[in-house]
Give the backbone structure.
Amino acid sequence: MSIFEILGLPTDTPKEELEKKYKDLRYELSEKRFLPGEEGNAAAKKLTELDRAWKDYVSFDESEKVNVGDTDSFSAIDEYIKKGDLASAQNLLDAVKVRNAEWHYFQAQVYYKREWLSESRKHLKIAHDMEPSNEKYKNALDKLEMKMGSAEVPPQNFGNYSQQQTQGGSCGNMLSDCCAAYCCMECCYSLFCCR
Amino acid sequence: MFGYVLPVPGELSKQDFILYKSFYCGICKLTGVKYGQMSRFAANYDIAFMSIFLHDILRQDVSFCEEPCISNPFAKRVTVKENPLLDKIAAANIILCYYKAADGVIDRDGFKYRIMKHSFGKPYKKAKSLLPEVDEIIAEGYENLRVAERSGSDNIDKTADCFAAMLQKLFTALCGKNDENAEKLFYNLGKFVYLADALDDIDEDFKKRRYNVFLKSFDNYKNRKQFIEDNFGDLSFCFNTTVNRIIECFNNLQFSQSYSLMQNVVFSGLRTTVRKLLKSDKKLAPPKL
């Protein structure tokens, strides 16, 4: 449970007001936990929950502050990915504290480049779940699943197949030089040394 | 390696089929001559594909001859003659087999791996002296794999990365030049072989309580059929993406003489193996071509 749910306050409550309510409730529960029987147990339990929720709230609040420059770090990560420097991109990703949808999207890209496609898919799914309306995440996930993850897509649709057709298409078999020899061999098993 | 990278013979022209066999026979023959007859069973279909790929991409001149086969001395077979590249591939294959056997001795029970390791002892030393850098790559690859397996890793990509990176480095060492598409192709080929082997061994690993990345990753094994059905989406995604990346890299490369043969393996053979693996309710029989 979040601190807002425990205190029964809306999520846009200012920090000062939240802190005051938290302290009041904490005082009340601290007193109650020494009561005998179930009442005391319940208060002690509630107190632990309250402290955990408050701690989460405070650490989240701080990490938000640390990551004011996230847009900058994402563009730096993007640069590293484009340059192919995946180790630096990963280092920057690891340093980011708030892992929002965009973070998962960039992590998915790094994994993709490392050929870790199952991991890449996991992060794209998280990004898509966090922001279902984001077309970029949805398209990337769809493409990964429907094209790269499919056994039905014709092999010719991957990479630069046409280049193979124009340049490599004329390739025969290196045995074709000795095709005649091969035919004879088939007939009479005579000895041939090709080339 | 293990025999999951195969052509589909029904879709191969007769010439390509002979060409394929000639590379297989070339490795087998050369291994016999250089490392003793006992080492010949090191030859396998995966290394035959690797050999075809390397000969083509390096435009290595290949000559053929007809020789009788040890398994059938009366029928002569077209065989690739020895060349410096084939020497290296045969040596690398011996090193691979030695480490595979050593790995088997460490975490699999059985007499088979002990005998295998013992019989590869001498050939391994000879191969290592020829290719010390390859020995280092493979030793490191298997060491990384052991660390990942001991830690009980449940991350499919991360565990397979050890074997995949090893094959990529092996390719670079044998090829002697950097080509991103070829490297990524070999990375995914290594990943494919590792994962195909893991899925194929799953029942045995479950019964003998051995490490298997799929058992760690999906915690719902009862039997092979049920396991594959329950995790079909994730398993097929994992194999399909690996195969499709191989296809993509293959399409970005330029080949010459063996293009149609390799196209058969890459476009049809790998997907056929995936279909068989995901359909079978028991371990696949060793391939016979």
